[in-house]
Amino acid sequence: MAVRIEKQGNVWTIVHSRFEVARNAMDPESADALVAAFKEFDRDDSASVAVLWGEGGAFCAGWDLKYASTLSDRAAFQHDVVEGLAFPTGANAAPRGPLGPTRLELSKPVIGAVEGPAVAGGMELALWCDIRVMAETAYFGVYCRRWGIPLLDGGSVRLARLVGQGRAMEIILTGRKVPAEEALRIGICEKIVAPGGSRPAAEAMAREIARFPQAAVRADRRSVIETYGLPVRDAMRCEWVNGVEAHFKEGADGAGRFSSGLGRHGDFTTI
């Protein structure tokens, strides 16, 4: 099985395992399986944070080009891609992305644990995650630049939002390698660890997030996503709407715990 779920309490690690076949490049079956896994995670009330990890030393080498090479026939391309993956009009739900879950709008955080290459579509998959933890030897890159395959799964959208239009344009148009150190410096990675350490570090971060009151976590995550690009007044209104009910559900109880003596002086160990 190319995708499996490993659960540690309220933290789920979703493992993509096609390394021996194609360095975890994404074929349609794996994409479907990842979508199913993340939908299950989002539905399950006992799950709080997910980690996405590519087994074997590669996060994801992009779209499986062996599969892509079968789409040279116009009829096959029309059926599988143009029609099969097209965005619908209006607010209707979109089908999965070429890389699987990249069009899902989840209610809970996802942390990408990146070892080795996260290139082409694999970079797009990593950018879909809320947070990225990279091994020192991991790297990004729009390697599909060499083969005439454009970014179709959010890469040009999400990269520009994270690093700015000019820097995103340079990375996308040159297709060059972006090593972990640079990724951290420019803002497409939030933590760097020793090789082999991305999964345990991502899971440790996930456990830290998962122990907090979750209504507030999800409200603040939603506000960060939904307010991007809005005028300040509209953004603050959106933040208020997202957060006020979470405050009622959890805030008074949290304030009471603080009043009882917990969490003083920035202590996060007793909450």
Which helices and strands appear, and what pairs or packs with what?
Layout (H helix, E strand, L loop, with lengths): L2 E6 L2 E6 L2 H4 L5 H16 L5 E6 L10 H4 L5 H10 L26 E5 L2 E3 L1 H8 L2 E5 L3 E3 L13 H9 L1 H10 L2 E3 H7 L4 E3 L4 H13 L3 H13 L5 H28 L12
Parallel strand pairs: 2-3, 3-4, 4-6, 5-7, 6-9
Antiparallel strand pairs: 1-2, 7-8
Helix pairs in contact: 5-6, 6-7, 10-11
CATH topology grouping of the largest domain:
2-enoyl-CoA Hydratase, Chain A, domain 1
**How many distinct domains?**
2
The major sheet is characterized as: 6 strands, mixed
* Beta-strand residue percentage: 5-15%
Query: Given this structure, which CATH class of the largest domain is correct?
Result: Alpha Beta
- Global mean pLDDT: 92
The CATH superfamily of the largest domain bears the name 2-enoyl-CoA Hydratase, Chain A, domain 1
Could you give the distance between the termini?
40 Å
Tally of helical runs: 11
What are the segments in which pLDDT stays under 50 over at least 5 consecutive residues? Answer: none
User: Could you say which structural class the secondary elements and strand pairing correspond to?
Assistant: alpha/beta
Query: What is the overall silhouette?
Result: globular
Strand arrangement across the biggest beta sheet: 1-2-3-4-6-9
CATH architecture of the largest domain: Alpha-Beta Complex
- What is the CA-atom radius of gyration, in angstroms? 20 Å
**Proportion of residues in helical segments:** 40-55%
